[in-house]
């Protein structure tokens, strides 16, 4: 009887551990957007830069007014909360903020209707260069160094790791 009760307790503990592991796995699965999040110190640095004298001066020069820096502070707080307590709400808000920031950054690209966007590269994208470009680049420093490397020739200046100004 005692062994049966012990088995039931062990099974329930095992079941709880499995459920907890499943929850963690679900959280990890749901966190597909974690790649876009920055380190918490970066949010703090962005906030400090935004509120600094230099940052305010540049904002006033570029935009004619001070920008609202509170989102960087909110993101920093959410990042800290998420890292310390694994808070799903903080994670969700942080991802939403990054998506909004990314959309704002890419908005001019999406609104650009001047250029026709390609689906694939041109068929001759890797064709050889025209003769006039090959001749023009024949005696450049990079071409000579490339030839040295291809012929396994080491020159004395390749062995010197830096530059000395006298």
TrEMBL record:
<dbReference type="InterPro" id="IPR021475">
    <property type="entry name" value="Pants/Emi1-like"/>
</dbReference>
<feature type="region of interest" description="Disordered">
    <location>
        <begin position="1"/>
        <end position="28"/>
    </location>
</feature>
<comment type="similarity">
    <text>Belongs to the UPF0545 family.</text>
</comment>
<dbReference type="GO" id="GO:0043083">
    <property type="term" value="C:synaptic cleft"/>
</dbReference>
<protein>
    <recommendedName>
        <fullName>Synaptic plasticity regulator PANTS</fullName>
    </recommendedName>
</protein>
<dbReference type="Pfam" id="PF11326">
    <property type="entry name" value="PANTS-like"/>
</dbReference>
């Amino acid at each position: 009887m005692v062994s049966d009760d012990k088995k039931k307790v062990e099974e329930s503990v095992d079941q709880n551990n499995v459920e907890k592991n499943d929850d963690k796995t679900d959280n990890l699965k749901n966190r597909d957007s974690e790649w876009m999040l920055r380190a918490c110190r970066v949010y703090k640095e962005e906030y400090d830069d935004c509120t600094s004298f230099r940052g305010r001066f540049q904002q006033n020069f570029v935009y004619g007014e001070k920008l609202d820096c509170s989102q960087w502070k909110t993101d920093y707080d959410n990042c800290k909360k998420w890292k310390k307590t694994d808070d799903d709400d903080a994670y969700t808000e942080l991802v939403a903020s990054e998506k909004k920031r990314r959309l704002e950054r890419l908005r001019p690209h999406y609104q650009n209707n001047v250029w026709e966007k390609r689906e694939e590269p041109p068929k001759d994208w890797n064709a050889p260069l025209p003769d006039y470009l090959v001749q023009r680049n024949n005696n450049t420093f990079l071409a000579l160094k490339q030839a040295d490397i291809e012929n396994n020739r080491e020159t004395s200046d390749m062995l010197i790791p830096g530059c000395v100004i006298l």
